Amino acid sequence: MNDFASAAMLRLVAHGLRRQGLRPPPPVAAQQGRVALDDKRALLAGLWPSIGPAGLARIGDAIRELPEEPTLRALVLATDPWDLLARWQRLERFVHSRHRTRVEAEGPGRVRLQHVSQSPGQQPTAAEDVLVFGLLVALCERVAGRPVQARPAGGRHWLRRDSQWRDGPWPESLHTWELRWDAAHVAGDPHPPVAHPASGDRWLEALHAALRADPGRPWRVDDLARSCALSARSLQRHLARRQLSFSGLLTATRVQCAADLLTSSGLSVAEVGYHCGFADQPHFSRQFRQSTAMTPARYRAQFARAG
Fold this sequence. Notes:
Oligomer: single chain
CATH architecture of the largest domain: Alpha-Beta Complex
CATH class of the largest domain: Alpha Beta
Order of helices and strands: HEEHHHEEHEEEEHHHHHHH
């Protein structure tokens, strides 16, 4: 993980331990914004004997009390657990994570997750698996607004039930998990549509407002049309009359949101790119440069000084 993802995870670990009445270990040293894999594994291996897998899984529940920093906000704005998992996968790609989460749908409110390594011979440790799945379960519950059940694949008993982790027994293999939630009663879209179709140019204002409120959302034409009480076909006609396109409007809004954050916040360039919905850092740099004729870093250096 790079700077902002590593730092966010380490803050979560420290807060999650304090939440359980435990003293966090000394901070892990970072070099050039990266936490060495061996150092991270040593930290988690040191926690495993004292708090066990259930204690590591409970660290994820600390997100309920953490300040809503941009990366967390970009995740919890998800419309449902499926959207949340897609945003998590984009985060893993964006920061070039050594480990990735595979998502396999098994039906409404049912998913199988597998935590795998990008490098042969460097599979995640059991402690790494539990930390990630504990966080994902907590995030899914926050987005769904309801409890999520979780157990290792093939297990007979749910280790997560009624928003609580069981102390045991836990199996040895923890790379693959099954999650279930009540799909009929998820929290729903955090961006409800306007009550009536917007007239004049108000529909365009509603579009911009919806996109800027959640630039990291994997927007579709149907989603955007709903935000201003139009059908997808009507929205496309409105855009065509103004010589606009859905993809062009989405990219332009994401670039503008990124420009605003680059000049008004202390977020890293990478975190700005993730928050604003770009697929990865090269995609962010390429799109931003096409729109502004500058790299994100140069744009920040020039206009932050000017401001």
